Amino acid sequence: MFTAITKGRLVAGLVAVSAAVALAGCSSGDPLDTSSTSAAGSTDGGAIVIGSQAYYSNEIIAEIYAQALEANGVEVTRQFNIGQRDAYLPALENGEVQLFPEYSGNLLQYYDPETTAKTSDDVYAALAGALPEGLEVLDQSPATDQDSYNVTKEFSDANSVTSLEDLAKVTTPLTLGGNSELQTRPYGPDGLKSTYDVTVGFTPIEDSGGPLTIQALKDNTVQLVNIYSADPNIKTNDLVTLEDPKGLFLASNVVPLINTDAATPEVTEVINKVSAALTAEDLVDLNSQSVNDQESPDTIAKTWLEKVALF
């Protein structure tokens, strides 16, 4: 979900998570300090607090949520770049953060590592029952941004590898690269072994599939990397995304996660409209504007909202 998340543009926004909370890109030094002034210039008195992962694509979606709500008269406080789930989910549960763009498959596996749900609809249905009291998901989007394993085209051609199944016949040692938490995820090295009988080493690369990850792959320091499927760098670098016929990765649609106390009809209606309008193609394009054009999240969000003319 992930992330996943980088890529020559907003790498500075990706920060290492220590203990429970990663630092946010705000002057307070505490990403969960909701008394701070928001990017829109308002404080938290009655505002809905929107968070994001330390992943550029997630921040873009969070900014879309924020601008859409503001366009409908809802006061917003931004607390972006919080880090990974161990940091921000407790904050959502206790109401310090109230709305967050999430990814259905990875979120479900966080709460239910043994889930057997695979398809988009099944994952979404299971997620509703797996969330702790006080959290709920709004409508999921057609847009997906899920973990995927990628190799260089040269590696793919030389080893006749186009799917994860094919990795089992590669005779040279394989090393997987990705954020450190990937090592213990259900779809990490243990998942590759149990699902596809593929043994890999692991090298942590802490940029969520960004330029360090791409370079390690090109240098053959690692042979396999985890990159989110909506990342335009997959196409830009002519990488091969390996097929996943046995469903190692769960379907992972963009889905708003909200604290129940903040799920007012006004907020729910606006965010559900955003979710319905955001397509998989849109998300790749939004990410490309960040990666290739180096536009800021607020500019990208504003342009998209003007294009879809929801409000």
Key phrases:
311 residues, five-stranded mixed beta sheet, three-stranded antiparallel beta sheet, 11 helices, globular, disordered N terminus
Could you please describe the fold and organization of this structure?
The chain has 311 residues and is α/β, with parallel strands linked by helices. Helix content is 35%, strand content 14%. The protein has 11 helices and 10 strands. The chain has helices spanning 56-71, 85-93, 104-111, 120-130, 153-159, 189-196, 211-218, 233-236, 265-277, 280-291, 297-308, and strands spanning 48-51, 76-79, 99-103, 135-137, 147-152, 175-178, 201-204, 224-228, 239-241, 254-259. A 5-stranded mixed β-sheet has the order 7-6-8-5-9. It has a 3-stranded antiparallel β-sheet with strand order 3-10-4. Strands 1-2 form a two-stranded parallel sheet. The longest helix has 16 residues, at 56-71. It is globular and about 60 Å long. The model is unreliable at 1-44 (pLDDT under 50).
Q: How would you summarize the topology of this molecule?
A:
Elements: E1 48-51, H1 56-71, E2 76-79, H2 85-93, E3 99-103, H3 104-111, H4 120-130, E4 135-137, E5 147-152, H5 153-159, E6 175-178, H6 189-196, E7 201-204, H7 211-218, E8 224-228, H8 233-236, E9 239-241, E10 254-259, H9 265-277, H10 280-291, H11 297-308
Parallel strand pairs: 1-2, 6-7, 6-8
Antiparallel strand pairs: 3-10, 4-10, 5-8, 5-9
